[in-house]
Amino acid sequence: MSIPTPHISAKSKDEIANTVLMPGDPLRAKYIAENFLDDYKQFTNTRGMLGFTGFYKGKRVSVMGSGMGIPSSMIYFNELYKFYDVETIIRVGSAGSMQENVKLHDIVLATSACSESSINDNLFGNIHFSPTPDFDLLLTAYNKSKELGYITHCGQVHSSDQFYSNIDEKVFKNLQQYDVLCVEMESYGLFTTARKYGKKALAIFTISDSLVSNEADSAENRQNSYTQMMELALEVAPK
Ligand SMILES: O=P(O)(O)O[C@H]1O[C@H](CO)[C@@H](O)[C@H]1O
Ligand SMILES: O=c1cc[nH]c(=O)[nH]1
């Protein structure tokens, strides 16, 4: 395969920075470019999955949507790492809290992801691989988030295959008891893909829903308001 790839229209590797921030929502990517980056240029809009490269405090960084769910997002993770030589992907996502103490708009840093996804079944036989982010990047993000004064939780996240999940009540209670912090839909695929290519990944979340209190943020807020998470990702993005 050569570039441009089937799903990213950048004609040269140079159009994309070494680190790419990736929300599921391409319009959140556009919001980040418009509000945080200087001199940004759009490098792709294939299938409406917008991607931009610009400068944050002089540091070159890209931001691009990943779409929702492991199958969609893994197309972009694979193409960015493998064909565009991207070194680091930082997911900047929304997530649904599964714990009483993880409140709306809190920051969560994933230390690992569990999933019902079968993407790794043929890779590891009967061993249940636990995909994890880059530890140095995680530690840097944790320290930075604390320094910025953000309410920050670190722990395992559930990368669900379904937003409208029919999860069994007992399974949900077990996940809660074993301290899974929140549910989202892509990190299991991101961490796995990063390890495949020997690259770096991190996932930062803003809590947009609570499965405990049944709160849910508006679509407008999910697209345009999770600025603590955006700033944190940009601050720790490697050059
Ligand atoms: O806000 P984003 O990054 O899209 O993340 C979460 O939101 C989407 C569902 O609404 C899924 O992609 C889930 O992982
Ligand atoms: O996957 C997700 C994302 C946000 N909120 C949820 O409840 N689930």
Automatic annotation (TrEMBL):
Site, as annotated: Important for catalytic activity: R222
InterPro entries: DeoD-type (IPR004402), Nucleoside_phosphorylase_d (IPR000845), Nucleoside_phosphorylase_sf (IPR035994)
Keywords of the record: Glycosyltransferase, Transferase
GO molecular function, one term: uridine phosphorylase activity
Binding residues annotated for phosphate, in chain numbering: G24, R28, R47, R91, V92, G93, S94
Residues annotated as the enzyme's active site: D209 (proton donor)
Residues that bind a purine D-ribonucleoside: H7, E184, M185, E186, S208, D209
Gene Ontology biological process: purine nucleoside catabolic process
SUPFAM superfamilies the UniProt entry points to: Purine and uridine phosphorylases
GO cellular component: cytosol
EC code: 2.4.2.1
Record note on quaternary structure: Homohexamer; trimer of homodimers.
Name this protein carries in UniProt: Purine nucleoside phosphorylase DeoD-type
Higher taxonomy: Bacteria, Bacillati, Bacillota, Tissierellia, Tissierellales
Gene that specifies this protein: deoD
